[in-house]
Write a structure and sequence with these properties.
Layout (H helix, E strand, L loop, with lengths): L24 E6 L12 E2 L4 E9 L6 E10 L3 E8 L10 E5 L3 E4 L12 E5 L4 E9 L6 E2 L2 E8 L6 E8 L12 E23 L4 E10 L2 E8 L7 E3 L17 E2 L4 E3 L4 E9 L7 E2 L6 E2 L2 E11 L1
Parallel strand pairs: 8-12, 20-21
Antiparallel strand pairs: 1-11, 2-10, 3-9, 4-7, 4-8, 4-11, 5-6, 5-9, 12-22, 13-16, 13-18, 13-19, 13-22, 14-15, 14-19, 15-17
Amino acid sequence: MNECGLNTGWPGDEYCILPPPPDKGFQLHIGPTNYEHPEPEYVLAPNEETTVNFEAVSGNDEPVYFYYRQYRMRPGTHHNIVGTTPANALDLGQRLAITNHLIEDNPKHGKIAPENAGVGIALQPATPLTVDIHSINVSDRPALREIWVNFWYRDPREVTEPVLELAAPGDIEFAIEPHADTMLGPFRCAVWGSGRMLWMYGHRHANNVRFSAWRVRGESRELIYEAFDWADPLLLEFSSNVVNPAPDRERKVEGGHSGVLDLNVGDFLEWECHVINQTDGYLRFTNQNFTGEMCILDAELVGAACL
């Protein structure tokens, strides 16, 4: 915390981090050029909620691989999604980084598990990027939008397993009636290839009370993820050097699978969201955190896809 020594008067100065050494990685920074007179796109009015795509360029001047990422965001940032800019309307781009937490390292503390020694994500020089930032200011004072993401390089000679991002939205056509208690899902995708899941979390909004996910293999249906706090969504890593808590629905204990989470051809991933609409209007698939909902399974996979 407070690596940069900022003293701007805006909340969240302590979240700033220094960039990696130039030969070790680069930092993606989205924020104002002048803290005394910030550009309007970086200022949130009191009680304002908005999602904005910012354009950027990756900081590498030659082809690289990366895996370890550090995220820091000022208070009020709900999500930050970094992806390659689509070349055209039919190109969805490639996700490179995503977080819902003001402070997050992926993998934790930069410790790459032995089985992931060959994992890496390729990035071409000066790649055009789109940075999707969803921000909410619930205070009575203006707030600043700003994020820092450090990308740490991997030795290309060691990279043998490319990473595939998974963002499975489930249903995007729902309409939940006012004050209704309902379930979105279960949704399902089929696993292709044999590999493993590196991490996952459930992306949802303020009317969600539970997000659950399973790996289905034949007659076996293992609960691999269960979480209850929409505002601080649980992210679970699945590796040999991480032990996750066992979930307990009755006691509202969040947790899931521990150790390597292997995926085989014929497996399925399933997920569902328990939603209680606390509003007087319909909930639909939108970025509005309090008046819209989502039930998205976000994850990174190696050796497998889920379609």
